[in-house]
Amino acid sequence: MKKCLLTFLLSFSILFTLAQNKLLAGPMLGDVQMISAKIWGQTSSAAQAYISYYPKDHPEKSASVAAQPDALFGNSVVWNLNDLTPATTYFYYFEGNKTQTYTFTTQALWQWRTDAPDFRVAIGSCTYINEEAYDRPGKAYGGEYKIFTSIKEQEPQVMLWMGDNIYLREPDWSSLGGIVRRYNHTRKTPELQALMSSCANYAIWDDHDFGPNDADGSFIHKDWTLDAFTHYWANPSYGLPQSKGITTQFQYSDVEFFLLDNRYHRVAANVKGQQSTILGEDQINWLIQALKFSRAPFKMIVVGGQFLNTIDKFETFSTVPAERERIIKAITDNNITGVVFLTGDRHCTELSQLTLENGQVIYDLTVSPLTSGPYDTSKEDNQLRVEGTTVAERNFATLDFSGPKDKRVLTITVRNSDGEKKWVREILQPAKK
């Protein structure tokens, strides 16, 4: 009798905990592969939290996974779903609210079988969510949150957040609690949550989610912001084996994305007696090797600051010319093809391109801002800007990868907050030599 009573009380306790633990923000779909997926959420308590999931056509194969929210980081939690099936749509729900279901689809196992699947990626940077008590006086700096709804309406499979995904204010970056609070405030934006649950989300950071404006590797609390970044995003990994930071890489269909850290190891150009750098030696060496190893038709390098812009200010790579030229030379010497930099930071969108000595072309697509205040770069003397690609209003871009093997096409479409088309360009897969 005592054993039955104990079992009943234990079961009741678990059910009561599940009923009490609610989802405050999320779910956000993170890294999605062929047989695995990550899901981020933020719960109302630090009690163990559960996600249940099942294949769309086989609800009888329901499974659940538990994860422990981290109270230090606002009860953030990442669920790791494994043993999934490629090219399969799954329904999932938070155990505290079974009436609200979400879906995701695993990547297809296409290699040696078919042409690579076509897919769409949405990109943008500079997300400022207003909070009057801590914003600068005067006109609100952020706005037009409807842009997140416009992005969702384009139905991307992937959303790439290219830095300044939160804006730490003066009260924030001096304490871990302040950093966590800024993430919590941003994630509660309703339009943002709807987008994040609809596609796989990947992110890098830039100065405003790393520390103060224009912060470099000297920022004393960079390990706090690194810890917060890893708790609020669900990337495949963070940093290199020999080098801390947010560096990672993932593949979607046949395209590879190299996500770089332009802050953790940064040494400003005006520091005398030290070698200035944006990426740091370990990251540069890894990037060159990884690009050379890649067989992807397009190799997308995602980094906060503009790479090709020729003006040597505003934290472009031209402020550290030796590093910029070193990377360009390595791409040229190794005959690395299909390189496209995806950058943010500038609060204005533009496309730059450079023809290399071997005839190959590299591109730099800057897309910014999402909700921050826009700025017009058209008067700057960027000698590599493609005419007609400047957009000086809040905007985002979609990247469509399509076509058969060896003839893949990247179609870039830039849209404003309302989803209205601003310009379109096509980049063809370079021919094999």
Number of strands: 19
Strand residues, percent: 25-35%
CATH-assigned homologous superfamily of the largest domain: Alkaline phosphatase D (PhoD)
Specify the overall morphology.
Answer: globular
Q: Taking Cα atoms only, what radius of gyration do you get, to the nearest Å?
A: 22 Å
Run of helices and strands: HEEEEEEEEHEHHEHHEEHEHEEEEEE
How much helical structure, as a percent, in the residues? 10-25%
Total helical elements: 8
Keywords:
433 residues; alpha/beta; Immunoglobulin-like; Purple Acid Phosphatase, chain A, domain 2; six-stranded mixed sheet; 8 helices; 20% helix; 27% strand
Structure in words:
The chain is an alpha/beta fold. The protein is built from eight helices and 19 strands. The strands form four sheets. The protein has a six-stranded mixed beta sheet with strand order 10-9-8-17-18-19, with no helix packed on it. It has a six-stranded mixed beta sheet with strand order 11-12-13-14-16-15, with no helix packed on it. The chain has a four-stranded antiparallel beta sheet with strand order 4-3-6-7, with no helix packed on it.
Please sum up the structure shown.
By secondary structure, this protein is α/β, with parallel strands linked by helices.
Break the fold down into its secondary structure elements and pairings.
Layout: H1 2-20, E1 23-32, E2 37-43, E3 49-55, E4 63-67, E5 76-81, E6 89-94, E7 102-105, E8 119-124, H2 146-153, E9 158-162, H3 176-187, H4 190-196, E10 200-204, H5 207-210, H6 222-232, E11 248-252, E12 255-259, H7 281-293, E13 299-303, H8 321-333, E14 339-343, E15 350-355, E16 361-366, E17 395-402, E18 409-416, E19 421-428
Helix pairs in contact: 2-4, 3-6
